[in-house]
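in:
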């Protein structure tokens, strides 16, 4: 990738840097991935991750077949398992747990119920659904890994984006993801000193590069070039760094997506702290998904990687300088006109007063108060709604 020229607001560091994580939003998506992934789904470099998902794709074959010609039977080697005879293939195909659920969904059969039945009885029910399937065509993804396995079954217009295509797009800007470019697996926040240390060995415990038989997820940061965007109340710099995460499933378990943002720290369990300017692109696996990935998502990732932080810094500066409230009446009015309840308004003002030592005056003050309120919401929908309001306020101030 093209390396960006450092400005006076962006400095390379050789050690950790102090951050204030009481500001901005907290994003738990990466932490959820980190918490749920077993060791065999964790990779220590983008090269290893890419090689694994590419080998998987090389062993796979996608075909469109008529559903009425698919035959369901008990597997020869195991009467408790189902096997499928698919047109164009002599050997039986073994459905995975995931593809069995997809197949049931396509023909309107309750997968949870069929899983409890003996294989022969479940097969009769599934066969009936396939024979009466109104859409007539299904797209299969079959893989030969010692035995023929059905990895996915979808509608005929499913637009597959391969996991290795996403990882390859990330490799173009991030190299190996371990420090050969500015984009790398993140370091760790030390809660005792409130210092984010970017120089942490990539291990199974610290990596943020994941892939399973259903999906791929990557999170990378540029945490050796902190960006200064204003000052904290004590006069120290308010530091951020850039980050993004992306995800995909070539078997239809989720959309493709890319999220980019500025953040202040990443803790050991991979929560993102002090997030600002969060933006997200998602692409459903519809008929033209591959074209959209090539023309929208991959270029957007490159643009973010090569972009200057100047607009973000200018937006923060404008929000800090734009005074919108000089007394209590102004503060109440500013928030109530923007849809906040009386209770929320009181909490936002009290939060800023507690954290800043003064009531909110600027747009940036209110944004930080709203973000703090959002962090305390246990339900994601409520949290995202508040974070969206804070983001819109920040954008309008620029």
């Amino acid at each position: 990738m093209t390396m960006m020229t450092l400005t006076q607001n962006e400095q390379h560091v050789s050690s950790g840097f102090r951050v204030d994580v009481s500001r901005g939003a907290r994003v738990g998506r990466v932490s959820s991935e980190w918490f749920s992934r077993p060791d065999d789904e964790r990779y220590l470099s983008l090269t290893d991750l890419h090689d694994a998902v590419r080998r998987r794709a090389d062993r796979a074959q996608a075909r469109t077949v008529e559903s009425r010609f698919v035959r369901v039977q008990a597997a020869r080697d195991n009467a408790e398992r189902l096997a499928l005879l698919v047109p164009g293939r002599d050997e039986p195909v073994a459905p995975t747990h995931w593809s069995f659920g997809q197949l049931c969904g396509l023909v309107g059969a309750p997968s949870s119920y069929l899983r409890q039945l003996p294989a022969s009885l479940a097969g009769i029910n599934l066969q009936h659904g396939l024979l009466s399937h109104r859409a007539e065509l299904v797209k299969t993804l079959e893989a030969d890994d010692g035995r023929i396995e059905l990895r996915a079954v979808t509608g005929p217009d499913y637009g597959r984006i391969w996991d290795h295509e996403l990882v390859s797009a990330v490799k173009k800007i991030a190299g190996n993801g371990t420090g050969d470019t500015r984009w790398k697996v993140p370091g760790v926040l030390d809660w005792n000193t409130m210092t984010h240390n970017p120089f942490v060995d990539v291990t199974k415990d610290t990596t943020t590069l994941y892939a399973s038989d259903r999906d791929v997820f990557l999170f990378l940061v540029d945490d050796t070039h902190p960006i200064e965007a204003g000052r904290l109340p004590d006069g120290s710099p308010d530091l951020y760094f850039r980050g993004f995460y992306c995800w995909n499933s070539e078997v239809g378990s989720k959309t493709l997506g890319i999220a980019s943002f500025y953040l202040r720290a990443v803790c050991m369990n991979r929560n993102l702290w002090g997030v600002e300017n969060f933006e997200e692109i998602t692409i459903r696996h519809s008929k033209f998904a591959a074209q959209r990935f090539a023309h929208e998502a991959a270029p957007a990732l490159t643009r973010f990687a090569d972009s200057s932080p100047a607009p973000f810094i200018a937006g923060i500066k404008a929000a800090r300088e734009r005074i919108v409230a000089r007394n209590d009446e102004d503060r109440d009015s500013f928030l109530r006109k923007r849809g906040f309840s009386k209770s929320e308004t009181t909490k936002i003002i009290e939060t800023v007063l507690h954290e800043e030592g003064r009531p909110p005056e600027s747009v940036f003050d209110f944004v930080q108060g709203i973000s703090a309120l959002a962090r305390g919401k246990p339900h994601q929908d409520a949290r995202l709604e508040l974070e969206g309001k804070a983001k819109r306020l920040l954008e309008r101030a620029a």
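note: Residues 17-55+160-308 form one domain.
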